Amino acid sequence: MSRRPAHPARSVTAAAAALAAVGALTAVAAPASAHVPAHPSPAARHVLLLSVDGLHQSDLAWYVARHPRSALAALTAGGVEYTHAATTNPSDSFPGMVGQVTGGDPGTTGVYYDDTYDSALLPAGTTHCTGAKPGAEVDLTEDLDENKDSLDAGQGLSGLPGSILRMTGDPTGLIDPSRLPVDPKTCRAVYPHSYLRVNTVFDVVRTAGLRTAWSDKHAAYDILNGPSGKGVQDLFAPEINSKAVGYDAGDWTKDNAATEQYDGYKVRAVLNEIDGYDHGRTREVGTPAVFGMNFQSVSTAQKLPASDGMTGGYRAKGVPGPLLEKNLDFVDQQIGAFLTELRARHLADDTTVILSAKHGQSPTDPRALTRIDDGPLLDGLNAAWKSAHPGSGDLVAHAVDDDAMLIWLTDRSRAATDFAKAYLLARSGTGNDIDGNARPFTASGLKSLYAGAGAARYFHARPGDSRVPDLVGVTQYGVVYTGGKGKIAEHGGAHADDLDVPLVVSGAGAPRGVRVDGPVHTTQIAPTILRLLGLDPQDLDAVRIEHTSALPAH
Known about the structure:
Blueprint: E1 2-3, H1 12-22, E2 46-52, H2 57-66, H3 71-77, E3 79-86, H4 93-102, H5 106-109, E4 115-118, E5 136-139, E6 182-183, E7 188-189, H6 192-195, H7 201-207, E8 213-215, E9 234-236, H8 256-274, E10 290-295, H9 297-303, E11 306-307, E12 310-311, E13 314-316, E14 319-320, H10 322-344, E15 351-356, E16 370-372, H11 374-388, E17 396-401, E18 404-409, H12 414-425, E19 429-432, E20 438-441, E21 446-451, H13 453-458, E22 471-475, E23 479-481, H14 496-499, E24 500-501, E25 504-507, E26 514-521, H15 525-532, H16 541-546
Parallel strand pairs: 2-10, 2-15, 3-26, 8-9, 16-23
Antiparallel strand pairs: 1-17, 3-24, 3-25, 4-5, 6-7, 11-12, 13-14, 15-25, 17-18, 18-22, 19-20, 21-22
Helix pairs in contact: 8-10, 9-10, 11-12
């Protein structure tokens, strides 16, 4: 919670000859002495990127083994499957998605979570910047919307939700600037795209004169535009945390049937784009070179204890329960619709489909769940600090605790970070398990806790960087920070259940039926996209900084 003040496959070794025969995924084979051009011939005209949030590699393998004729099985068999892919750490939606399209981890991109803190910026609403005290929450959630209760984020469409495809493709204008942090140098609001420290594949592809599109869950995904603010030509971002019309549970994430309906709007947008239209099918603009969407319904099926008369989460370690299995069917059907439409439009031979996930979800073992209310832990830390330092204010400036602990402090000195670390590691208490029964915890539920310069090193960031958390806690397996009993899993942490996501590259330019078992990272998707399109991955800032390579089967 946020605190505010299997199919048959060739192994990678067996695939080496096949990769050489087809020139890997992107480049024409050349003698060792030959110069490889910076801009190889494109292997694809279109790249369709799909993120199934919450999906693990183990979920994909489980489903394909039981549904060998499914769309997911066909997608996997038709390309390269990376069986040991890891997403970013923290494993949150924003750093996860940003990593896929920039090639960079949070220490480079500056994006650690969807709700963070920057000690160099001024608080939202600041109008007189001279002499103002720095330190500001950076909120990339529904709270930025003009109207977060409306599916169109405040655009004012009539006939919602049925009319949602008429939503603008430029949701930046639906962000309320008074809710954005302020740059002390210019005294202007910092929009999400300006907050990102590096460019995106959308920037590079747009600069090359090709079309771009994306569909996601908040207007704040304006961040994907990159620093230019113009990377995504058609950004469809219906608000997932708005009131779900026709459902009693609340927003679109509180009832899994509602989440499927919500995902369906984005599916329709992508189908329209495959057909060569904008997301709302109002203008014929051509199929984008890079486009895609995120699915949210698997994630809610993993997190909700129950919905629509079915139990959520996992039956046992790594075994999907009935609600999750239903959602895997749902996602499979939608991906099947994409593949069918690509064939119908004679685009299948020119399109590469990349399937992955922004994040996993933990725990996948329901018996391991320990729910801990982090509120008393943070309140206790503040009280202890003020007791030891009379006249001081709260020590915690901001905290985000899902299944990891990220804390920013008002005092960033070593004495303060050491104090906070010692306090949290000494806390014991009682949480509750999957059945709601009492379960004791120690060390605030933490396995390890990095503080100060150690936290910066953990993220490969510069010590003292204004955005890096002052404390980073890796939880004991199964710990989820929540004040109630309505959640059975979360993400954001560093466990295998958080990080181990699927990664499949299938279609144009990809050899069929190849499995790569070595470790790869979802940040490698970004340079791979550019290679597939015949563009230079070195045009990505993060690729140059981190030396991010394209995926190794290429």
